[in-house]
Specification:
Layout: H1 9-19, H2 25-35, H3 38-43, H4 46-50, H5 57-69, H6 72-81, E1 84-88, H7 96-99, E2 107-112, E3 121-126, H8 132-148, E4 151-154, H9 160-170, E5 175-178, H10 192-201, E6 202-206, H11 218-228, E7 232-236, H12 243-253, E8 257-261, H13 271-278, E9 282-283, H14 287-293, E10 301-302, E11 308-309, H15 319-325, E12 333-334, H16 335-342, H17 346-358, E13 362-364, E14 369-372
Parallel strand pairs: 3-4, 3-7, 4-5, 5-6, 7-8, 8-9
Antiparallel strand pairs: 1-2, 2-6, 10-11, 12-14, 13-14
Amino acid sequence: MNDIPPIDERLRATLLLALTPGVGPRTRQTLLERFGSPEAVFAAAPSQLRETPGVGAKLCHRLIAARDEIDVEGELALCRSKNISLVTLDDDGYPRALKEIPDPPGLLFVRGETLPADALSVAIVGTRHASNYGLRQAGRLASGLARAGLTIVSGLARGVDAAAHRGALEAGGRTLAVLGSGVLNVYPPEHVELAAEVAERGAVLSESPPRAAPLAGAFPQRNRIITGLTLGVIVVEAGDRSGALISARHAMEQNREVFAVPGPVDSRTSRGCHRLIRDGARLVESADDVLEELGPLVEAATALDGRTVHHPAELQLNEIEKQVLDTISTEPTRVDHIVAASELPVSQVLSILSVLEMRRLIRRLSGSLVVRA
């Protein structure tokens, strides 16, 4: 008896669309807007396909031939045998933040596991040709943010990306690696072991099929996923033409925060970061700088320790500060109620309220009333 749960036709058609050569995220979105579902795309007549913007004669032929020429069942069997999850836009496990971007992947191939706590995440990216300074800063920031409870997202590339993943792992935190190749075709090849570590403590994911080759055009495209998963992106060392600057541009377009680490003024790999800072990116010296600048979450997230978090700056609080914050509502709350509920001395409560206000977690409405920001 077969113990493998049945795969529905929607998933088969979604996978088939992902495997069809020439169907990128924009074309996929156009096809779905035109036909309504992946199944309808493959049921469409050639004349209907050709009427779709961006679908020429060659792509039309590929879509028509896909059912006969692409081994969907074989790809599904491969994913099962290698413990690769297929996560579609319709699945509950699809990252909510990624759904918000203009061109989200229709299907993610995932080695490892994404968690609700990954909603509290920051990307760290930078040059593949990092200096010792850049590697040190990337690792230090990743470790500090991971210890605070943020998931670190990067692209598993040489240089800054690898340092960020390793920094998060060394701190005992979570990290996600987004590949420009398939999750079974890790690039660069010397990071196969690092990818396995990331999958154990987070996830390795891609919109490309598991065995897809690392094509040059896929890397700028995957950068939109790195930033789309996160609350903001930190650029650590980037030359004038660094791919990290593409990530920064994606972040701006996706309404994410952009941070940059300053470097030596005579270093070529500092130029991109310094330009970002001149253009309005937030200068970063420490993990606290990032936590303080990230704005309130659109939707409350559950941290790894089980706490409900409304603002990343809450991750900086000690136990007593959390205790006081938990007594404050989104409705005006009286200070005497906070004192009674927290069972702390008035002087200590007033001092903590000043800290919470400084971190922009609460607002004072008057001398005796405060409210959650």
